[in-house]
TrEMBL record:
<dbReference type="InterPro" id="IPR015867">
    <property type="entry name" value="N-reg_PII/ATP_PRibTrfase_C"/>
</dbReference>
<dbReference type="InterPro" id="IPR036069">
    <property type="entry name" value="DUF34/NIF3_sf"/>
</dbReference>
<feature type="binding site">
    <location>
        <position position="331"/>
    </location>
    <ligand>
        <name>a divalent metal cation 1</name>
    </ligand>
</feature>
<feature type="binding site">
    <location>
        <position position="64"/>
    </location>
    <ligand>
        <name>a divalent metal cation 2</name>
    </ligand>
</feature>
<comment type="subunit">
    <text>Homohexamer.</text>
</comment>
<dbReference type="Pfam" id="PF01784">
    <property type="entry name" value="DUF34_NIF3"/>
</dbReference>
<keyword id="KW-0479">Metal-binding</keyword>
<dbReference type="InterPro" id="IPR002678">
    <property type="entry name" value="DUF34/NIF3"/>
</dbReference>
<feature type="binding site">
    <location>
        <position position="103"/>
    </location>
    <ligand>
        <name>a divalent metal cation 1</name>
    </ligand>
</feature>
<dbReference type="InterPro" id="IPR017221">
    <property type="entry name" value="DUF34/NIF3_bac"/>
</dbReference>
<feature type="binding site">
    <location>
        <position position="65"/>
    </location>
    <ligand>
        <name>a divalent metal cation 1</name>
    </ligand>
</feature>
<dbReference type="GO" id="GO:0046872">
    <property type="term" value="F:metal ion binding"/>
</dbReference>
<dbReference type="GO" id="GO:0005737">
    <property type="term" value="C:cytoplasm"/>
</dbReference>
<feature type="binding site">
    <location>
        <position position="327"/>
    </location>
    <ligand>
        <name>a divalent metal cation 1</name>
    </ligand>
</feature>
<comment type="similarity">
    <text>Belongs to the GTP cyclohydrolase I type 2/NIF3 family.</text>
</comment>
<protein>
    <recommendedName>
        <fullName>GTP cyclohydrolase 1 type 2 homolog</fullName>
    </recommendedName>
</protein>
Length: 364
């Protein structure tokens, strides 16, 4: 198996197009055409993790956090990033990162957090816009089902938990085949009238090439008429954070202790209690203060995330409880997510989970 096959499996789950503009997800070091000896899964590709990969015979490290976040102007070993680069390249170890693209997918990092708490009725807290497109095409009535099915198989037609969604209108198309054409219906030089179905489907933008290819290969016309338009709709399957509900209400301190236990954190920093039971929970892996207003607006009782600054705790304003559990603690189960993605795709392949705890924060 090639490294690129591992990458394709991860990116079919979390497409690179879903990463934030500031991010650097993808293959950081290495040749994707090389064969895989084994894969080591980790949250951070530190020096210790590269040493572990060498010791365990792994030539691919899959991490959540990109070891190279900004540009590298020199690689002299002056800091840990440069040392990782030197060691990985020297030992032919590829390093790949799935970061905010894995954060932003519906069943990604936040879903792992929600699962640990048993949340139900979950949905994206802040869905993203600009990720959807719509295809309009015109097909002879008798061929509409063939084209429709091909588009669905290419990934078009998903709206929330519904698949194979399309709109179909009936009408009449006209065309005149010119010299040198081979028309599917009609004759050269004469205007032809054809009963057609106007077919509309939505698809995520990263699938555009596949969807158009499916259209062209299944459509009977020599020249296929179609339009692709960008939509401003929020894509409910992709975005930041998650919100859901506990199966049963809990007392505030009882819930905070439950969070501490489930995430194994040495410390939960939280804002003043409100004297109310909690049921609706918002969360975000990693640094999530940017979603606080969204969590308040969604009616959350508690917002679980990390990396809040001192003054940002005041922004809770007694409208909910902020529970800061730590950056590492909020994303630690990403390794399990990677493992699930790869073992589901490759049933006879067993990637290795790093035994290195990469959390740079300690609690006394």
């Amino acid at each position: 198996m090639k490294i690129k096959e591992i990458i394709q499996a991860i990116e079919s789950f979390a497409p690179l197009q879903y990463q934030e503009s500031y991010d650097n997800a993808g293959l950081i070091f290495g040749d994707s055409s090389r064969e895989v000896s084994n894969v080591l899964l980790t949250l951070d590709a530190t020096e210790e993790v590269i040493d572990e990969a060498i010791a365990r015979g792994c030539n691919l490290v899959v991490a959540h956090h990109p070891i190279v976040f900004g540009g590298l102007k020199k690689i002299t070993g002056a800091n840990y990033v440069e040392r990782v680069a030197i060691k990985a390249i020297k030992h032919d170890i590829a390093v790949y990162a799935a970061h905010t693209n894995l954060d932003n997918v519906r069943n990604g990092v936040c879903a792992e957090m929600a699962g640990r708490l048993g949340l139900v009725k979950t949905k994206i807290l802040q869905p993203k816009k600009g990720l959807l497109k719509k295809l309009y095409t015109f097909v002879p009535v008798g061929d509409a089902e063939k084209v429709r099915t091909a588009l669905f198989e290419a990934g078009a037609g998903h709206i929330g938990n519904y698949s194979e969604c399309s709109f179909n209108g009936q009408g009449e198309g006209t065309f005149k085949a010119g010299e040198g054409t081979d028309p599917y219906v009609g004759t050269q030089g004469s205007r032809h009238f054809e009963a057609e179905t106007k077919l509309e489907v939505i698809f995520p933008l990263y699938l555009e090439g596949r969807v158009i290819s499916a259209l062209l290969s299944s459509h009977p016309y020599e020249e296929v008429a179609y339009d692709v338009v960008a939509l401003d709709n929020a894509y409910q399957e992709v975005g930041s954070g998650l919100i859901g509900e506990l199966p049963e209400e809990m007392e505030e301190m009882q819930f905070l202790r439950y969070v501490k236990e489930q995430f194994g954190t040495g410390c939960v920093k939280y804002t003043p209690l409100r004297g109310k039971s909690v049921k609706k929970i918002a969360l975000c892996g990693g640094a999530g203060s940017f979603l606080l207003k969204r969590a308040i607006g969604a009616g959350a009782d508690v917002y679980i995330s990390s990396d809040f600054k001192y003054h940002e705790f005041f922004d809770a304003d007694n409208q909910l409880i902020i529970a800061d559990i730590g950056h590492f603690e909020s994303e630690q189960f990403t390794v399990e997510l990677f493992y699930h993605i790869l073992t589901e795709k490759f049933r006879n392949f067993a990637p290795l989970k790093s035994t290195i705890k990469t959390n740079p924060v300690n609690y006394l």
